[in-house]
Amino acid sequence: MTALxxxxxxxxxxxxxxxxDGVAGxxxxxxxxxxxxxxxxxxxxALPQVAVAxxxxxxxxxxxDTNDGIAFGSPGMENASGDVRLVxxxxxxxxxxxxxxFAWVPGRQVTADGGPWAFDQRSVLERTVARLDAAGYSAxxxxxxxxxxxxxxxxxxxxxxxxxxxxxxxxxxxxxxxxDFVASVMRDAExxxxxxxxxxxxxxxxxxxxxxxxxxxLTAADHQLLARQTVLAAAEAHGLRVSFAPLPxxxxxGNGWHVHTSLWRGGENLLAGTAExxxxxxxxxxxxxxxxxxxxxxAVTAPSLGSLARIRPGFFAGAFxxxxxxxxxxxxxxxxxxxxxxxxxxxxxxxxxDASANPYLALAALLTAGVAGVEENLAPPxxxxxxxxxxxxxxxxxxxxxxxxxxxxxxxxxLSNNPRIAGVLGEDLLGAFLAVRRAxxxxxEEKETEDVLAAWRWRY
Length: 460
Ligand code: GLU
Ligand code: MG
Fold this sequence. Notes:
36% of the residues lie in helices and 19% in strands. The protein is an alpha+beta fold and 460 residues long. The two termini are 40 Å apart.
């Protein structure tokens, strides 16, 4: 059987099973360059055909900005003529527990004749994982997802923000008013194949966090999208509204989507270590690689104006370039293993990460930066347990600690001047990615930050 015949056959089997389960439509999802999930829904009966040929979508999604404006002009994105095929990844088809008439599947965008398309974000991560694999590495990735839960107003256009829980932070009492919602999230996540770590009330009123167990990078990115769909469906069912935006309001808590990674070689977790840091030089080099590329990396992992508003000193969001052991103010927080947790628990958490990042690009950039550090045997500076945000400028300069880029222009400069991270995206996709960032910044130029945050509150 050819690969295409195989896909058609698999599509037939899946269509029959889904139809027997009462599923009407299959939602094919990808994430755009703003981290916004986009989709096409096909009837289950179309799955055999769609499994082979995909569905047609405009190439211009590569330059959709956060407001659904189209940032024409970058190479390949000059005008409205063009089409790509969105092909479902059949091994990931998931019937949605919270939307039982629908199944969910991530898609890849390919050219009209089925070849690779330079702007497809999922392929970027696939290539990165294949490169790691060829060099003898694998990675484990776990997401923490913070979000705000609000009452659904009577009138959907009413943007009054009523936190659905009042706090206190981390209190079991905080979740009582949204008990049924939390229970649905937990049940539906499990049924959808997501492995939850934990769920709790986070720092501010309205804020909740859920964490996903570590898994391979592609699954982690797919599951981050599936988790959003799962949470939003549960919110809808319980008359609630969820904001995944990096900063729903200036006064409220920021929603970090911290990424925990560990790098493995020959069955060994290279990050394993102690409170002094990774034991071996390779694990330390991984952290050094992340630190070296952090300004450019953050331009991919926390790329929006909302991200920049969220990354404030003193908010555990990682505003300065340094690393620490269990230092929650550090953008790179090393989490050692222990006798209790096991050596292999060790990982490093990237805090400059949120829902406005495309998860495939973010993980591809992150792993590339870390592995480059290993391959070049970099050595990191000493970890910090303090918060350099509380130091005088002079003290930070003496310690070689810089603020991460805090404007769109600074982020663009950091990314454009870093061939390693820019190269992960490749010239075409980088052009589209930056065009989108500039379009957002141009739109926001005359606006108050609070208004920008309000406009994007429900976009992710
Ligand atoms: N909400 C914080 C952020 O914006 C993170 C708090 C925490 O350490 O969990 O990233
Ligand atoms: Mg948290």
